[in-house]
Amino acid sequence: METRGLILLSSLLLPLLLTTTSAQLRSDFYKNTCPNVEALVRSAVTKKFQQTFVTVPATLRLFFHDCFVRVCRLIFMIIIFWLLLGTFWLARCYQFIAEKDHPDDISLAGDGFDTVIKAKAAVDNDPQCTNKVSCADILALATRDAVALAGGPSYTVELGRRDGRISTIAGVQNNLPHPDFNLDQLNAMFSSHGLTQTDVIALSGAHTVGFSHCSRFSKRIYRFSPQNRIDPTLNLAYALQLRQMCPLKVDPRIAINMDPTTPQTFDNAYYRNLQQGKGLFNSDQVLFRDTRSRPTVNLFASNNEAFKQAFASAITKLGRVGVKTGNQGEIRRDCTRVN
């Protein structure tokens, strides 16, 4: 009875905690300390985007992972920094937090990391802004700008986050959605962060850009059953195409676009793909297969503006999760390490 009471109390307090935290964030937080912060970040992200489109999915994924694992405090970047240095034992742990099985393939995380580093340098190069803007806020702004550059929505970013001071990999495992998740598992994980089923579906739409590695979905096209059949929920022609691109002996360097139709445009093609059985992960396809989520998928598939509005709302909510404000954290001088 006591346990049930604690669970009920937690469920009642969570919305209050989220509301209290988000109330401390505001879009004009740097109005008096760094009024040009948005222009400075946008310029840096645009330059990076012009160098490589991977900037978009990498930055977006970094923001998602950071908020899901370390609740929007940019502790995640410290982990990635050491991975880029090639530290083996960290790389072994990293396989649980990246959307890929092979820790050596960190190109997405690397480009997201580089985007934030360059944006931080651009901000700090302005004497009025030096060491006044948190890395967490820079990532939030860079994510918005990267999405907009790819054709997605440009939304208002709430600012005022502080960077966390503690960085460990403990607890990362099982804190991110798995490609094999069903709708109940997705809803449960997102709900723990105050996000709804509609938020789940909208944020999943980020898979309209970027790519994954063959090992993340190979069992859907080779080992779905003891007879090595293809997952029957997967479009057969699409599955055979995936087999051609992903040999049975999977090369970890092979990358496949998450969206086979418009992989470099942030649009609602992802949902139209789901209607055709072309969701790369089971956690993608289940959104159309499950009758509880199918109506929302159909709405987003037919209305790109509805998708963009829902995505903007969902990623704004995600950006509020467990943030530190005021004196709770710090403003890092170097995004790869605590002060």
Automatic annotation (TrEMBL):
Ca(2+) 2 binds at T208, D259, T262, D267. Ca(2+) 1 binds at D66, V69, E99. Residues 1-23 form the signal peptide. The active site is at H65. Binds 2 calcium ions per subunit. Removal of H(2)O(2), oxidation of toxic reductants, biosynthesis and degradation of lignin, suberization, auxin catabolism, response to environmental stresses such as wounding, pathogen attack and oxidative stress. These functions might be dependent on each isozyme/isoform in each plant tissue. This is Peroxidase. It comes from Juglans regia (English walnut).
